[in-house]
Amino acid sequence: MRVIVTAGGTGGHIYPALAIIDKIKELEPKSEFLYIGTHNRMENTIVPERGIDYVPIEIYGLSTSLKLMGRNVKNVFLIQKAYKKCLKIMKDFKPDIVIGVGGYVTYPVIKAAHKCGIKTFVHEQNSIPGKANKALLKYVDLVGVSFNDSLKYFTKNKAIMTGNPCSENALKIKKINKETYGLDPKKKSVLIFSGSLGSSTVNNKMIDYLKMVKDSDYDVLYITGKSSYEEFNKNKFPKNVHVVPYVDNLSGLMKDMDLIVSRAGASSMAEITALGVPCILIPSPFVANNHQYYNALSIVESHAGEMIEESNLTAMELKKHVEGILNDEKKMKMYKENLQKLSINDSATIIYNALKDLIKD
After folding, report:
1. Whole-angstrom Cα distance, residue 46 to residue 9?
2. What is the pLDDT of residues 35-88, one digit of tens each?
3. Can you give the three-state secondary structure of the chain, one letter per residue?
């Protein structure tokens, strides 16, 4: 299979794209890939490090801010330039299928593939579709969604429930014992994180909470994010609090945790549901369409976890939720069981089969 993949901007788009690539490689080792991403975002370094051929294009997201209208005008020209570049790429690479996994970079790529008569598949990770995926609907042959609620946004028979491909990767990854990070194997453990770069807003609110757990009978591992670690770690915390800037293969560590506190990004939620780890979600209010709130709401309404909106986040509120779960075995059991009911553990395989069917058609 010859495949062009495009996704960019955040790990929430990039890692599901890589999970799809990994599944195709597993089932068709001779497949060839080309990844088209931005010239200045995360995928520009992450993808080439995986040994995947990478082509960057210069493109920026459109903004509704009056201050950035000048950049919008420039970007209209950049989109057209990128579209023409992608048309040439399609003719040179001759893919069997083109896959878009979110981010504004996908727009000229999918549009060019459609123009060339190449089958296209788009994956939507969040409960509410992003701007790029909405704009691409008329150019796409099939859409895969992560939440049942998302199906209503798409034309009937043009969207299928696939789940998030990160879930399958999370199940396969090797477990990392919490002792690796200094936690007591005999105690319950709470893992708290808010993305690869962290959140300064959440970090500031967490300081009081971490100092407050001094006499608690559980350990906390707090991941600050690389940009916040040095400043955050100047604080003095109790012995049962462990602070690190970053954890590689985070889903492997999740397997040895009793409770997770995190943002409600789609990839993190896919891993949490697949692994069945009880969670407290703090959705970011600074995302398009407030989609993290609706991601988290799907967990809460399924009685599979809890949510604290950032405006309500305090040390006392978090402590109440954390200990309310850890100290209630019946609640822990219910959350684990309901999370596993929500999980689609073969998401990447479902997507692979959908791609094969598209190519056959």
Report:
1. 11
2. 999 998 889 999 999 999 999 999 886 665 555 555 667 778 899 999 999 999
3. CEEEEECCCCHHHHHHHHHHHHHHHHHCCCCEEEEEEECCCCHHHHHHHCCCCEEEECCCCCCCCHHHHHHHHHHHHHHHHHHHHHHHHHHHHCCCEEEECCCCCHHHHHHHHHHCCCEEEEEECCCCCCHHHHHHHHHCCEEEECCHHHHHHCCCCCEEECCCCHHHHHHHCCCCCHHHHCCCCCCEEEEECCCCCCCHHHHHHHHHHHHHCCCCCEEEEEECCCCCHHHHCCCCCCCCEEEECCCCCHHHHHCCCCEEEECCCHHHHHHHHHHCCCEEECCCCCCHHHHHHHHHHHHHHCCCCEECCHHHCCHHHHHHHHHHHHCCHHHHHHHHHHHHHHCCCCHHHHHHHHHHHHHHC
CA distance 274 to 279: 12
Range of the domain at 50: 2-164+345-360
Pair (115, 178) in one structural domain: no
Q: How many domains does the chain have?
A: 2
Same domain for 205 and 217: yes
pTM, whole model, 2 decimals? 0.86
What are the phi and psi torsion angles at 241 (to 5°)?
-110, 130
**Residue 23 one-letter amino acid:** K
Rounded-to-integer distance, Cα 252 and Cα 229, Å: 22
The average confidence (pLDDT) of the chain is: 91
Q: What is the pLDDT of residue 197?
A: 43
The answer on 338 and 248 residing in a single domain is yes
CATH number for the domain harbouring residue 200: 3.40.50.2000
My answer on whether 283 and 355 are in the same domain is: no
Are 19 and 43 members of one domain? yes
